[in-house]
Design a protein that fits this description.
Order of helices and strands: EEEHEEEEHEHEEEHHHHEHEH
Number of helices: 9
InterPro entries: ATPase_NBD, ROK
Pfam family, one: ROK
CATH class of the largest domain: Alpha Beta
Protein name: ROK family protein
Family: Belongs to the ROK (NagC/XylR) family.
Strand content: 15-25%
CATH topology of the largest domain: Nucleotidyltransferase, domain 5
Radius of gyration: 20 Å
Number of domains: 2
Largest sheet: 5 strands, mixed
Low-confidence stretches: 1-13
CATH architecture of the largest domain: 2-Layer Sandwich
Shape: globular
Structural class: alpha/beta
Organism: Phytoactinopolyspora halophila
Helix content: 25-40%
């Protein structure tokens, strides 16, 4: 991990002028750590990023995460911080405060909340990165004002933050696995099942299925979309199947959860109308009595997880620093 600077930028207040009521937040990604010091009004007094190298092993990842939190805690703008928010990928047990498993980070059953609290001296709100991003989109982003919503990042994988009655559903760390809904394609998934949404509709799957179909290597889903624009029938077929699979998964979610709005984020959302228009049309064709949700792009970009982590920390402050 790149060592953070030891001196504050010129625009950061000295400790005696630092905001009186702040939280620190850290979003752990597959290759980057995104951190912030956030004041009581939700404004970032400081934002920082560091590189993460999971290939160095689980112990190195844990060390990097804890070091980033300590650096945030010691940032001049965080002189009066009251809590920390930590958003991590994979399976997360928010009750026990443990990071159960993450394929990308290579860690397994890490008591990350206790370690973070010990290192920072702050109460720490631990959450899943997708659910943290969903919380941010509901409170301050594309789903703001909606009581029932799905926030679905579509990138290397597919997951969802489920919002019911304004609350993000945790489900003992297991809720929201939209990417592993069976959508009827005989396609193997990394999870060990077949027919999962993620195996057909994720950005990684689009590129992989195109290459397998025609033997040409491509640089991601964006390359497949460019080939579709150029009239490549294989690219058209792979793209159409991805839209179909995602619409099937969303139709199931609509029947179960009745979202008012579906927010699509992640790299695939950059496709714009090429994704949103056919997806809305295909979903409308699958629904009968169910309400058709609005399908909109995410508003907060790749900082959503960090913003959500700050919101989790603020919620923890309002509960008096208790995790119950």
């Amino acid at each position: 991990m790149t060592t953070p600077p030891t001196t504050a930028p010129a625009d950061v207040p000295p400790p005696d002028a630092a905001p009186a009521d702040t939280v620190i937040a850290l979003d752990v990604g597959g290759s980057r750590l995104k951190g912030a010091v956030v004041d009581a009004g939700g404004t970032a007094a400081a934002t920082v990023e560091w590189r993460l190298t999971p290939e160095d092993g689980a112990d190195a990842v844990v060390t990097s995460v804890l070091s980033a939190l300590v650096n945030l805690r010691h940032h001049p703008a965080a002189a009066h911080a009251r809590a920390a928010g930590l958003a991590v990928p994979g399976l997360v047990d928010t009750t026990s405060g443990r990071a159960i498993w993450s394929e990308n980070l290579r860690w397994n059953d890490v008591p990350i909340r206790a370690l973070a609290e010990e290192r920072t001296g702050l109460p720490v709100a631990l959450g899943h990165d997708v659910r943290a991003g969903g919380l941010a989109e509901v409170r301050a982003g594309a789903a703001r004002g909606a009581d029932h919503a799905l926030v679905v990042p579509v990138g290397t994988g597919i997951a969802a933050a489920i919002v019911v009655d304004g609350m993000v559903i945790d489900g003992r760390g297991l809720a929201g696995e939209l990417g592993h809904v069976d959508v009827g394609y005989d396609e193997p998934c990394a999870c060990g099942a077949r027919g999962c949404t993620e195996a057909v509709a994720s950005a990684a799957a689009i590129a992989r299925r195109y290459t397998r179909r025609c033997g040409l290597a491509v640089d991601g889903a964006a390359d497949v979309l460019e080939r579709k624009h150029a009239g490549d029938p294989d690219a058209e077929a792979v793209w159409a199947e991805a839209i179909d699979a995602l619409s099937r998964a969303l139709a199931t979610a609509c029947s179960l959860l009745a979202p008012e709005v579906v927010v699509i984020g992640g790299g695939l959302a950059k496709a714009g109308a090429e994704l949103f228009d056919p997806l809305s049309d295909r979903l409308a064709g699958r629904l009968t009595f169910q309400d058709l949700p609005r399908i909109v792009p995410a508003a907060l970009g790749d900082r959503a997880g960090c913003i959500g982590a700050a919101m989790m920390a603020r919620d923890l402050v309002e509960r008096g620093g208790t995790h119950s």
